[in-house]
Amino acid sequence: MQIGRKQSTLWVLVLLVFASTIIGWWLRSDQKAIEVVQDALSQYVLTQKTGESAYFQDRITFFEHQKKPCRVALLGDSLTDIGDWVEMGSDLGVVNRGISGDTIAGLKSRLKQSLACKPKKVVVLIGINDLIAGASPEQVVRQLKELLLSLKSLDRTLVWQTLLPIHSEKFIRDTSFGAAFNQQIKQVNHNLKTFCAIHKIETVDVYQALSDESGQLQTGFTHDGLHLNGIGYKVWFTVLQPYMR
Q1: Which helix H or strand E contains 20, and what residues bound it?
Q2: Cα–Cα distances in Å, from 40 out to 86, 150, 206, 225, 227?
Q3: Is the separation of the CB atoms in 19 and 225 below 8 Å?
Q4: CA-to-CA distance for 197 and 146, rounded, in angstroms?
Q5: Angle (CA) 107 61 59, round 5°
Q6: CA 126, CA 96: separation in Å to the nearest integer?
Q7: pLDDT in tens, 153-209
Q8: Angle separating helix axes 34-47 and 2-30, nearest 10 degrees
Q9: C-beta neighbour count of 193 within 10 angstroms
């Protein structure tokens, strides 16, 4: 079962890298507008049918039946899903509740299953797939606020992590699109930081920790421009660890 889940995750990542490579080649050869690239990425994400895939259903079934009490639940998409947080920190009270390809709506729909282990602290990172699928920063901010308020009403310690940057050349092979996309990410992060300060929700600035001087994901932390390699996860965990105590 575990091997099957890992294979499903791998195929999703392979398809994403393939899609971004093809779109990047198309952009270089024909100089398509950013809007065209955004539309192509949007169609890629939407065809994954987030929330309906076998992998999504398998994961939430697994979450639902893991009722042994936990201390910290990490909620998110592939960025969370791929990380082996227990191995990095040797803390058996931390559980991974990430699902590759997930969106804000997908995460909100599975809160009951994801929190079946009754964590005392919930750590959230979600939203990058919504932006890729074409949602505006304003839409993402609105949905994130609703999600965080729902979680806060459950009377658990809540930690929100900023969206991570992308590396434009590696992800989409186009600097102008990458710069525009990272600006959207920064806009979401800025608005959510203010919101979290007002509502006394702890914030972890992962974007700052992983970005270079130009504001994009450091080249040494990624292979595909979106997901992290082992070095990137090590830096991320170092920043996050104090908030998981």
Answers
A1: helix 2-30
A2: 36, 32, 27, 17, 19
A3: no
A4: 15
A5: 55
A6: 14
A7: 998 999 999 999 999 989 877 777 788 999 999 999 999 999 999 999 999 999 999
A8: 160
A9: 15
